[in-house]
Structure formats: structure tokens, C-alpha cells
Amino acid sequence: MIAKEARTEVLPEVLPLTKNKTWSKVWSFRHIYLFMLPAFIWYLVFCYYPMYGILIAFKDFKYNLGILGSPWEGLRYFEQFLSDSSFYSVLYNTLSISAIKLVFGFPAPLILALMLNGVMHGRIKRIFQTISYLPHFVSWVVVVTLMQKILSPNVGLINDIRDHMGLDPIFFMGKPELFYPLVVISDIWKGVGWGSIIYLAALTNIDPHLYEAAEMDGAGRWSKLFKITLPCLTPTIGILLIFSLSGVLNAGFDQIWLMQTPATLGVSEILDTYVLKTGIQQGQFAYSTAIGLFKSAISLLLIVLVNKVSKKVSDVSLW
Amino acid sequence: MRKTRMKRTLSLTLAVPLLALSLTACGGNNDSGTSSNSGTTNTTNSTNANSGNSNESAAPEQVTLSFLSAWNGGGGGFPQDQENNPVAQAVREKTGVTLKLESITTSEVEKLNTIFASDTVPDIVNAPYWSTTGGEGQVIKKAALEGQLLDLTPYLDKYPNVKKLMTQGVAKDFAEFDLNSPDLEGKQYVIPMQTPDGTPESIHNWNYGLYARGDILKALGVNAADIDTQDKLLDLLTKIKSGDFKDISGKPVIPSGTMHNGWDYSQFLSGWSDYNISDFRQEDGKLIHWTQSKDQEARLLYMRKLITDGLFDPEAFSNTDTTAKEKLATGKLAVFGAQSMIGDLQKTLYKTNPEMQYELLGPMKNKSGNIVTQVEKPGRSGFPVIFLSAKIKDPDAALRLIDYLNSDEGRLLAYWGIAGKTYNMADGKPQWIADVKKQFDDNPDVKRDEGLNYLSGSFMGAFSSEVTWPIPEDQKTQWEKLEASYSKRLPIQIIDKVSASYLVRDWPKYQEFRDETSSLNFDEEFRKACYAKSDDEALEILHGIQEKFKAAGVEEMAQYVAEKAASRDDIGW
Fold it and tell me: Is 50 exceeded by the pLDDT of residue B23?
């Protein structure tokens, strides 16, 4: 009630009656828009301006002619990719890694947030939160180097322990069957704390009266979780799921590129690493741009579809 | 109301710097021509340092040029003080040129593609140029044809030393088909570097081979020279594995391995090699492309055996330069395949554990029963090259520098430093000053920081310091003697023929073949097969990539080459 009164006090001041309401509204909130301006410029310069570069996908790119001056090639590179012998394996690997990450990695931050939310001791909760955030700030180069050191068959800690137990060393990073588990575990370790922030914020927004009422009705911990917490988090989960599904073709370039070894190439070659190899290593810029564009087009299609489905099923949507 | 005003003031205080910051970050630095030179930008900086000076007309114009060594780890020879080391100062006095050095620790071909695609070619670049049909050479040639490189042809008469580099020490067939290929239309874009002076003695011996830790061989009672076949090598590695040998920290050794990214695992398979100078092999009376050789199966199965039996470092193919050198420095590898690596070992393992000094195995015997060694043509085929950016503002300054460094005076400066300070002339030959030599021998980094490695390593061609200034036996360091002893056991094999690989250029389907095979990587598939779950699966991977080459027309290509070669008597496989 107090909040409502405060709002009615402010509104007449910031919304003077003028002919052009939109612009006057913008002017009234100019300070807020000023805050947005750097981000807007950032998107313009680093995301939208370079976007004309996708033209390379349809051109026979020549250094001296530049992107606009190079001759058109039509859909040649898209056809080349679709008929490439690596196409299916690369797509399969990308989708597999994304799917596994989604199944195991998506619920992890939610579970952590729920667990942290259950910790009553404020100091301990903050310590756990901080510890879980820290890996997010460590680059993949460092994470993978650490993994290589710890899991090395020659000097690694794990194999040293195995050696003391009389067991043969295992080349963990070189076992195709261990590649996906290692990818998922390291991905969760690195991102779970950071990913839980949004859920923790959403959890604080749940009206405590709901829990009090439920307790009075004799609800236990699990009942409260399934009857109050999760339903209240559904919009947040829905939005994050839409984002995750739209990025299903982004299996995580940095991580995969660094973890890739000749031994695991069969299961680790994904669209992004393939783009790098054909583009930067083999100099086939047009071909690799076509692959990148193919990936972006599929991602866009996915986000539209998933959003539509989500809107229909759960009333949660991005637009 | 006061609160609202305060909020607004606070918001503005925060937002304005943020906005300013983002605009600054986004803005281009348009006044870069006035001062700083970043490594990857075209920033030839020309300012006359002597303006107002009475010697103005005689002094060379002062110019700063960016230089990129596009070699993975190529910055190893760069002095700590790039601009004011004694050699750089002397070069500046003579030529007016100051170099801003940049190097890479990533893939050469990636760097080249990046600088060409982003139009950030440094003024001078030194890069690998093994062939114009693949790898770095192909990238450089494409860039030359598409206007990224400066055509040097109009300048050559003005710089006789540079002109000499274009031909001397270059293999005839490489000069004809690669360096001056018809599609370059008579233009010359690259300057060969590290080429021999035209004599066989000046061809550098890289001493590729297999090296085993001496103390381990001693403990096993094995004579290094006796290990010269694949079977004997396998037997030795098996003995090492069961011998419970340790590295310097008391941890088990790895029976065998390589340097970074599997360099050079082919040394473990050299029993299947031959004295080849082309992509073609004669098998069962028929000419075939190397990818189709029957030996590939045997090579693969042997490599797999080494890996599955725990005789070869499973991490060898994913070793970084750092991890590989760490293994080397700790004596972790009982046997390694590469060059002798004395430069690194003398600073590390040979200092801490001299008893572990590596010994050259064999030399191994190849499939013809000859020793496995370096095969060369009378001139060099494929070498590092220097090229200049098409946008270089002062090409004459760059060529003046290269011309000077390849003069007698410039070579003395680059290799020996300052007369009277680091060397003296005796009987027309430079001799190190004793104290200086001791410092250099004790710590090679002192020599590097004196500026005595980077110019000789990147700017010299048609020359051999070993031939011009042979070091008397009594003045050689123990490491130089050791390296020379390896070279003696691995004499270079010279084949004076034209490579059959060049005949394929006239094949009508050549371009089509190249397009179809451009994304195929035989070596990558071979490495993948080495780690397959079973031999059958490994062979399937191998046959898969062989089939792809076959489907691209490799058999028809070999047949065409065989027919062309039949009409000439100067073709070598």
C-alpha cells in the first residue's frame, strides 16, 4: 500500500502531459537511459556493426577486394558443408554435448540455489556462495590446465594415488568414453555457483507469508519445495530453459577446444572447433562463416520455436 | 524532492564516466602514426632524428619498423632489450632502422591467416614457406596474389645482397615451381632465409633422430648404436618399461615421447621411411601417392602397440611446448624423438644430472636398409621467408636493413657483435674475447641479450656461419662437439633431382583435387587412429581417410605423374 502511494506521488511529476508521450517518457527517465547507453553502444559496435561480415558466407572472399567487393558465390559453401563427410559427426557431437550439459548442467544451479536457500546460518551461507562463485572467474585455460595436471597419466595426482594402490594409470583426458563426463563435471564445477545467482534472487522474491501459511497447514520441507518454491520459480526456470535451448548448438568452444586431444577427436569435434579449424587454420573464411551462419540460423529458429511452445504450455515466454 | 535530486546527481555522476569510458574504448586511435607502434599494425614510423644536425645528409633516415617472427616460440632468441642492445644500436647507426619485435606461441598458419584477414600485416614478417600448395606457404601465396604483400621485384637491383638471396642456395625446382610459379606473373614477394651458401657443407644438419638417456642404456647394457631397427627399438622400450627407471624427482620415467604436439613422432616410425623428395612412392612397380602406401598400416599398428603397451607417452600429441620441455628437463623421457634439444638440455638436465645425458640411437635403418637421415637437394626446398606488408610506408628502410645484414659487415655484427667488445679479428677471422666467450658458454641468455641471436636467426640467407667461420676444435664447447658428433653420424643425403610433386601442377584436375582435399587432414586421422579402441577400428579410420583421398582422384593423379615422369630422366620420388 505504501509502495502504491509513493508511485502515485512520483508519476505525475515524471509523466507530464505532452503531445509526444513516448519522448517525454524517455526524457523523464533520461538518467536511466543514460545508464543503458554504454551497453547500447557496445552492442552496436561489437555485435551489430560486424554483422555485415556474414556476407562472407555467400562470397569468394579475397583479401584485396574486402567483404563487400568479393564476388558472390551464392549458397556454395552451405552446400559444401551439408555434403561434407564431417557434417553429421560434427553436428552429432555438438548436439550430444549440449544435450548432456542441459540434462545435468541445467538443474545444477537450481539445486545449489535451493540448498543454499535452506542454509539458515547467514555467514556459512555467504561463505558457500562465495566459494561456489569463484570458479566462474577462472578462465577455461586455467581450469583445463589444472585438469590436465591432476589427471595426467604421468605426473597426475589421481594416477599417483592409483599407482600407490597398485593400479595401472589411466589417460583420463584421452579416453573418448570419459570425455563427456569430464566436460559436464568441469562445466558444472565452473558455472554452478554463478548460475545459481538468478535463482537465489528469484527465491528472495517469494512471499514468506506463503511458507508461513503452509507451515500452519502442516506442510513439511518437501511439500513446501514442490508446492510453493518450484511453482514460484517456474517463470525463471522457463526463461533460463529457453535461453539454454536456443544455445544448444553452442557446446562451449573454449572448454572443448582446450580439452580436445587426438584420442578424443572423434567425440569432441563440434561446430565451433570445426569452424576454427577450417577458418583460421585452413584459411577457408567463407566456408567457416557459412558454418557459423548455419549455426546461428538454427539457434534463432530454436529460440523462436521453444518460446512459442513455452508460451503455449506454461505461459512463460521471452516475448 | 531533495532525495530525487540527489538520485539524479548520483546517477549522472556514475553514468557520464561510464559513457565516456565506453566511447573511449570504442574509439579508434587515429593518431597512432605519431608515436607508438604495436606489433601487428602497419605503423612504419619515419622521423628524421638528425634534423638540424650538420650530418643530416649522411645519416640514414630513422625509421621504426614492426617485425613479426611468425614461428611458434620464435621469440626465444629475442633480446630482453629489443631497441637498445648493443647490436640493435649498431644496426640503427648503420641503417637508421629500429625494429619492434613480436613473436607468437601459437600455430603459425593461424597467425598468418589472422593478420591477412584482419589486414594487420606487420611491416616485416618472417614465416615458414615449405611449399605453396599447403600450410603456411599456401596462405602466404594467396595473400601475395591478393595484394597483401609488397612486390619486391622493382627494388631488387637497388639491393644486391637481397637480390642474391632470391636465388643462391634455393633448390632449382623449388625456385621454378614455388618461388617463381607462373601464377605470380614474374613478381617476387618473398625473400628466402636460412638457405645454404650453395655448397653442400653449408646445408644445416638438424640432427633429427631418437635420443635415449645414457644412464638407462648403461644400466641395461645396451649400445646406442645397436638400436637401428623397429624391432630393436620396441625391445629397448619394453626393457625400459620393466626396468623401473626414475626421473630426477624419483618418479617413474616414460619409456618414450616427443616434444610439443607430437613433434617428431615420425622418428619412431622411421623404419618405413626412405630418401623421398616428393609426395609419390614406387610400390610394387606402381607409382602411388604417399597416403595410399601399404606401409601406413604397419606404421599405424606399430604406433598403436607403443601406446597400448605403455611404451609411448599418451600425452605426446597434446603436449604444449612448456609441458614437453618440463619432461625433458626432468629426465622424464627415457627416449625422445626430435632434434637433439641440446640448447634446452644444456641449461637444465645436463647441468643438474649430467649422468643422464642423452645418446643418439642407431641411426635407424630405413626400408631400403640405409640410415635414416636428412634428405636434401643441392639447394634448399622450403625455408623461412621474409615478406613485407603491401602497406609498409618505407619499404626501402626494410630492404636497406636486410641488405646490410646480409653484407659481410652486417653478418659479422649479427653473429659476433661489436669488434673489440665481444670479438677481435685474427688472421681475417673473428675470435671471441675469452671472458665474453666464457660468459656466453656459461649462460646462453647473456649472448641472447647481447643481441647475437635474433638477427642471425631471422634475417640471414645464402650463408653458413659454420662454413665461413669454422670453430677450431679446441674452441668448441662440449655441446658444440656433441652436436657435431651427431651430425657426423647422420650425414645429409643429397638428391639432385626434380621433385615429382611438381609434375602434378599441370594435371587438368589439379585444382578440383585440391578443393576436395583441402579439408582432409591425414595426419590428424592417423593420430586419432593411434588411440582407437581396437586395431580393427584403427584400421577403419585409416582406410576411411585413404578412401577419401582416393575418391578425390589420388590414383588418377599418380598415374598422370608417372606418365609425365617417364618422359624425363631428372625426376625424383
Answer: no
Q: Residue B27 pLDDT more than 50?
A: no
Find, in chain A, the residue whose alpha carbon is nearest to that of B18.
A38
In chain A, whose CA is at the least distance from the CA of B312? A154
**Residue A98 · residue A249 · CB < 8 Å:** yes
Under 8 Å between Cβ of B143 and A63: yes
Q: Which of B301, B234, B338, B290 is nearest to B545 (CA)?
A: B290
Segment (H or E) for A82: helix A76-82
Tens of pLDDT, residues A288-297: 899 989 988 8
**Is B72 in the same domain as B173?**
yes
Q: Which amino acid is at B49?
A: A
How far away is chain B from the Cα of A2, in angstroms, using its nearest Cα? 17
Phi, psi (5° rounding) for residue B384? -70, 145
Q: Is residue B289 part of a domain?
A: yes
DSSP track, B226-293: G--SHHHHHHHHHHHHHTT-B-TTSPBPEEEEESGGGTTGGGGGGGG--S--SSEEEETTEEEEGGG-
In sequence order, which residues have a C-beta less than 8 Å from that of residue B453 and are 6 or more positions away? B77, B78, B79, B447
Q: Does B117 touch chain A (CB under 8 A)?
A: yes
End of a domain among B376, B400, B433?
A: B376
Nearest CA to B99 among B442, B460, B397?
B397
3-state helix, strand, coil in chain A (%, to 5): 80, 0, 20
* Tens digits of residue pLDDT in B462-475: 888 888 888 888 88
* CATH code, domain carrying B114: 3.40.190.10
**What is the domain range of residue B539?**
500-566
Is B12 among the domain residues?
Answer: no
What's the predicted TM-score (pTM) here? 0.76
Number of domains in chain B: 3
Residues of B in contact with A86 (CB under 8 A): 519
User: Which stretch of A186-200, A301-315, B26-40 has the lowest confidence by average pLDDT?
Assistant: B26-40
Q: How far apart are CA B192 and CA B161, in angstroms?
A: 12
Q: Which residue has the cell 611404451?
A: B311
pLDDT for position B426: 87
* Minimal-distance CA residue of chain B relative to A285: B117
- Judge if B283 and B419 occupy the same domain: no
- CB under 8 Å to A168, separation ≥6 — which residues? A162, B310
Could you tell me if residue B24 is inside a domain?
no
Interface test with B, best of A63, A82, A83, A160 (most B CBs within 10 A): A63
Same domain assignment for residues B185 and B215: no
Is B531 in Cβ contact with A280 (below 8 Å)? no
Write out the DSSP string of B65-116: EEEEEEEETGGGG--SSTTTSHHHHHHHHHH-EEEEEEEESS-HHHHHHHHH
| pLDDT grade for A144, boundaries at 50, 70 and 90 | very high
Tell me the pLDDT tens digit for each residue of B313-360.
999 998 888 889 999 999 999 999 999 999 889 989 999 999 999 999
Q: Is residue B160 within 8 Å of residue B408, measured between CB atoms?
A: no
Q: Give the DSSP letter of residue A71.
A: P
User: What are chain A's domains?
Assistant: 75-314 (1.10.3720.10)
Task: Indicate the pLDDT class of residue B20, thresholds 50, 70 and 90.
Answer: very low
* Beta-strand relationship, B97-104 and B63-72: parallel
In a shared domain, residues B90 and B102: yes
Give CA–CA dist B24/A14, Å, rounded.
Answer: 32
Q: Evaluate whether residue B126 is within a structural domain.
A: yes
- Judged by CB atoms closer than 8 Å, whether chains meet at B139 and A31 is answered as no
Quick one: B397 and B281 in the same domain? no
> Which among B15, B23, B109 has the least Cβ separation from residue A34?
B15
| Boundary (domain end) residue, out of B416, B448, B468 | B468
Report the interhelical angle of B108-117 vs B135-145 (nearest 10°): 10
